[in-house]
Amino acid sequence: MRRSRRHFLLATAALALPVLAACGGSAPAPTPAVTQAPQPTTPPAAPTATAVPAPPTPTPVPPTPSPTPKPRGSAMTTPDYSVHVFLWGGFETTQRDLGLVKEMGFTWVKQMFEWRYIEPHVKGTFDWGEPDRIVDAIDKANLKVIARIGDQPKWVRPEIWPTVGPPTKLADFGDFVTAMATRYKGRIQAYQIWNEPNLAREWGNQPPNPAQFVEMLKVAYAAVKKADPDALVITGGLSPTTATGSIAMPDVDFVKGIYAAGGKDYFDMLGVHAAGYKAPPELSPDEIAKDPKYNHGEGAKGRIYGFRHAEDVRQVMVANGDADKRVAILEFGWTSDPRPTSPYNWHAVTEQEKADYLARAFDFAKKNWQPWIGAMNVIYIADPAWTKDDEQYYWAITNPDGSTRPAFQALRSMKKDGGAPPTPGAVAAAAATKPAGAASPAAAASPAAAPTQPATTTKLAPTAPAKSATKP
């Protein structure tokens, strides 16, 4: 899914950069093209969390810990309760939206912190104003945060700007992560490294490469653990897709590639995206593969079109001797998109079905995925700038004005009783006696084999929130 217009306009104003026509994204389509929607429209006001000069001039502030840290542990219950929020530039709506999270009884939020807006012009010169404001607000709300970091600045790779892609010099990314983890030690509990690296449009329009991603993970993991050993490192959430070749790699194959490249020791949790599409949350991948109503007419490949596809990905971890690690679902939800021309329309559900399915998904996870499931991140508390022309609008559980939908009300009423965080060894022990779920043998086969990249391509899963809420 795409970045919001409000976020884009705020960020470009803060950077004193012109609005680039190339950043204007149209409605997502099942192609690998990189589209980045306009960003926030709220004028940048002086941040209140720390004393920095007013935007747009970035201020070189050393990456020392931010004021009055109030550490909260990074432990996650099984499952734990998280929702994606859009606080960047939301000077008038931040307290409202965090209040909605608290009202739901959720304990985590996910928020994007884009490298390109924090270290925008020159290496080592940071603008901490807006990140400080956001972290301070989350801290005061007594919530934990998964910080999604990525999206390189122009100075890192000017030749592909504004396309998102890995930096030429990974040390530059490592230095940025070090600055973040140092400044917010004890206040950011988890870091998501990049987003959907199994899509070419998130990887500089180059074929996805798990080995290259592992090199990025190594750098980021070392940086976080040196600065803040208690913080969690989560791999970038992977897009469910049936595409292969130069434009994308199925998430199961990409995870196999991570293990084949030696990535096992460089993340604490595996990030997964688990959109429900049209299927109820209890429906297994095997059942979806047999039913054209749910598999988009793609047969066995269409087993990805369901919430429980997360089990297929989990099984790859088990097959590679990594059963004691847990999974964080970084995006999941259902859309009610009624627009006939939308690529998301084929799997639209009603708002009431969305409410029912979300609550049932948490219940299913409690009964079947303990202890390997960690945070489950719902998409989303709506960005105030969204309209009915934005596909994200239809995935949300609130309206842009802050009013709530049935899904919000169902999640607020849902009992929050996740199991206690597992002790070391407990997840692996459980895996030995309790399978992840209805994962197919194919998902676990060839545990250390590098994934193949066929010469031909199939369509990207046209409904996956590939340009998702994690890209405000």
Distance from first to last alpha carbon: 8 Å
Largest beta sheet: what is the strand line-up? 5-4-3-2-1-8-7-6
The CATH superfamily appears as Glycosidases
User: How many helical elements?
Assistant: 14
CATH class identity: Alpha Beta
Biggest sheet, in brief? 8 strands, parallel
Radius of gyration: 20 Å
Tally of separate domains: 1
- How are helices and strands ordered from N to C? HEHEHHEHEHEHEHHHEHEHHH
What is the mean predicted local confidence, pLDDT?
Answer: 84
Overview of this structure, please?
This protein is of the alpha/beta class. The protein has a single domain, classed as Alpha-Beta Barrel (TIM Barrel), CATH 3.20.20. 29% of the residues lie in helices and 10% in strands. It is built from 14 helices and eight strands. The protein has helices at residues 5-15, 94-104, 115-118, 129-140, 170-183, 210-227, 251-260, 285-289, 292-295, 309-319, 351-368, 406-413, 426-433, 441-444; strands spanning 80-84, 108-114, 144-150, 190-193, 232-235, 269-273, 326-332, 373-378. The protein has an eight-stranded parallel beta sheet with strand order 5-4-3-2-1-8-7-6. Strand 1 (80-84), helix 2 (94-104) and strand 2 (108-114) form a beta-alpha-beta unit. The model is unreliable at 5-62, 65-71, 438-446 and 448-472 (pLDDT under 50).
Features:
single chain, 14 helices, disordered C terminus, TIM Barrel, 472 residues
List the helices and strands and how they pair.
Blueprint: H1 5-15, E1 80-84, H2 94-104, E2 108-114, H3 115-118, H4 129-140, E3 144-150, H5 170-183, E4 190-193, H6 210-227, E5 232-235, H7 251-260, E6 269-273, H8 285-289, H9 292-295, H10 309-319, E7 326-332, H11 351-368, E8 373-378, H12 406-413, H13 426-433, H14 441-444
Parallel strand pairs: 1-2, 1-8, 2-3, 3-4, 4-5, 6-7, 7-8
